[in-house]
Amino acid sequence: MFQHVAPFAGDHIVSLNEAFQRDTRPHKVNLSIGIYADENARLPTLDAVHQAELRLATARMAKPYLPMEGATNFRSAVQTLLFGARHEAVASGRVVTIQTVGSSGGLKAGAEFLRRWFAFSGVWISDPSWDNHRSLFESSRITVHTYPYYDPAGGVCFDAMLECLRTLPPRSVVLLHACCHNPTGADLSTAQWITLITMIQERQLLPFLDMAYQGFGDGVDTDAFAVRALARAGVPFLIANSFSKSMGLYGERCGALSVVCTDAQQAEHVLGQLKFTVRQSYFSPPAHGGQIVAQVLGDPLLRLSWESDLNTMRDRIRAMRVRLHAALSQRMPDADFSFLLRQRGMFSYTGLQPSQVDHLRDAHAIYLVHSGRICIPGLNANNVDAVADAICATLLL
Question: Could you tell me if residue 4 is inside a domain?
Fold first, then answer.
């Protein structure tokens, strides 16, 4: 029956992580997979998350199916986190939110909704973008194109990006990273977002935002600038967000998809069709992770504790950027590594070529993805100098 089934080539990043686990070299460093690690190379459990789980365990609550759209308290908490406490779009009822299986589930649900209900010529993603963006949309039979984004000097080629997007047909879907661009770490400035939003309105484009790293750029509210500015401008758009990184809930697969509509009636219809999309896929989302999020965001003390831990994580990432930049610059004073200081969030594009990435892994036990993307939280005081030594040795080959 299954002799015709082709083998799966595997996921590059997952395969790298598995190879790292098998590597017996004691000095190995994992800079590939997008997971936050603390100074001791461990995945931390945030105190607010721990306290929320204790409350849930003590309550001994039953575990019925959630509604297709997810738990009400979770959805409300997500809207407040994304749009702020008193945003007009939420107050007027023109934002709808569903709880999803991670932000990947939100992207997929959004893609399926658009395929069925939105007449458009395809989706445009940044060059480069997270690998799974293309797969998620193509699996929904949506044509994927790219627009210029990354400048090899370490920033955004904004003029080329605008020039491309201005040529798109009206109603084209444009995937944008709300903050902490994956894989490059290069973000739009506030002024660039304002210019982009004006152009989106003029060209009648439909933004689809991915926001997996809220809080890792400049802070929870500052990182939500693009979301709130688009809603304030009256632009309809979709946004998928995740709590994997910001709360350490990787395995709970806890995310959301929100759609900002023109009015409350449109929002009601959109919510109904999103529920139908969920019904055809996984029926209803898992409960536990969403209730952790609702507890943390709904309790002022837990939220304060969460934001404090999130600030600590963000500050550590910044410190590692500074430390790596200093170490590389000391070893290669004629080279320019300033991109490490300009880029934000968990990732940086190093400019390393695939052959150099292979050399780092084989000769130095340092694991990066082939694009040269480095996961900054994989660095710590014990390994950053060794990583700098290895990178410089590789660059000088």
Answer: no
* Residue whose entry in the numeric block shows the structure tokens 């070893």: 331
In a domain, 200, yes or no: yes
* Six token digits for residue 197: 């939003």
Do 37 and 97 lie in one domain? The reply is no
Q: Is residue 89 part of a domain?
A: yes
* Residues with catalytic function: 130, 210, 245
Please count the CA atoms within 13 angstroms of the CA of 200 that sit on its side-chain side.
24
The 3-state DSSP class for residue 264 equals helix
Residue 116: CB atoms within 10 A of its CB come to 12
Task: Give the integer Cα–Cα distance in Å for 397 and 388.
Answer: 14
Range of the domain at 198: 65-298
- What pLDDT digit, counting tens, does each position of 132-156 carry? 999 999 999 999 999 999 998 889 9
Nearest to 346 by CA among 161, 191, 214, 190: 214
Q: Do the Cβ atoms of 49 and 252 come closer than 8 Å?
A: no
The closest alpha carbon to 386, from 367, 359, 364, 371, belongs to: 364
Is pLDDT above 90 for 177?
yes
Average pLDDT, the chain: 95
- pLDDT tier at 105, thresholds 50, 70, 90: very high
What is the distance between the terminal CA atoms of the chain, rounded to a whole angstrom? 51
Q: Are residues 141 and 27 in the same domain?
A: no
Token readout for 255 is: 């995310």
pTM: 0.93
**Contact (CB, 8 A) for 120 and 291:** no
Kindly calculate the radius of gyration of the chain based on its CA atoms and give it in whole angstroms: 21
Rounded to 5 degrees, what angle do the CA atoms 79, 82, 88 make? 65
* One domain, residues 198 and 229: yes
* Per-residue pLDDT reduced to its tens digit, 237-282: 999 999 999 999 999 999 999 999 999 999 999 999 999 999 999 9
